[in-house]
């Protein structure tokens, strides 16, 4: 981002971090928010695969979670939506044992006979098949046209999917050493979760079926992050960037507002002339010019919004065809 000219910025997931293959989206979000706090001022997590606090992580957060779970009531930072969602959906379990087999998707029962493997970069048809399977696993609410699907596949194929596949396999088989390090201070984050309260009784008969969404209580993030904004949405994430862009936008806006209230590094730079404009004073309900001595010279008869005249040579008059108009000939008192 700094090479692009952005000294300070915020980031956001574009879909459910818990449904990302091999946890790529979640690991990238954590790495940016934890390791680059001098430039990444905050991050928007969408359905993050948080784990419940343990006694070794934070004794206070662990005790709050145990009390709320025991009482099954909205207390100590847990809401009734958290209690209801946990009763209906499973808690995410992060597997610390990495394996490149099936690119980290073995827990989703994706071993269908027609599942393409590592030769995706050699076959456009195989890549198209895999895109169709991923879309069906995400379970988008809005149907994609054939043109939309071809466009998505082209965006993966044209740049060359080899690098992305290698990165995917690396994420599925290894854990970076920097991921185990805790930052000196808690990063600021916004969190958006999905309560899953929509009717999900109808399941498609075709395979693969949409993946079952997990639920993490936003309060679980307090042991590692400073949660400055929280959003709850109904239903499941689905293909979020296609179906419900407002969830992403609302989370980013909430995060930005919270950061701008205390951090001035992302404030809009003052435009030239704004200082002079702010020096205008209201007198008796009328706008009068403030004392700008030493700054500019203004005609006293000029209106406040009128620019002062500048001495100098005037430009020749031009007609509509951008040709110079020849000067008028002057007579010297006689005809020739």
UniProtKB/TrEMBL annotation:
The GO annotation for biological process reads: epoxide metabolic process
From the Swiss-Prot or TrEMBL record, give the protein name: Uncharacterized protein
Matching PANTHER family: EPOXIDE HYDROLASE 1-RELATED, EPOXIDE HYDROLASE N-TERMINAL DOMAIN-CONTAINING PROTEIN
Keyword Hydrolase in record: yes
Q: Which Gene3D superfamilies would you find in this protein's record?
A: alpha/beta hydrolase
Renumbered residue ranges of the record's region Disordered? 292-336
Task: Say which species the protein is native to.
Answer: Fusarium irregulare
- One GO molecular function term? epoxide hydrolase activity
Q: What is the lineage of its organism?
A: Eukaryota, Fungi, Dikarya, Ascomycota, Pezizomycotina
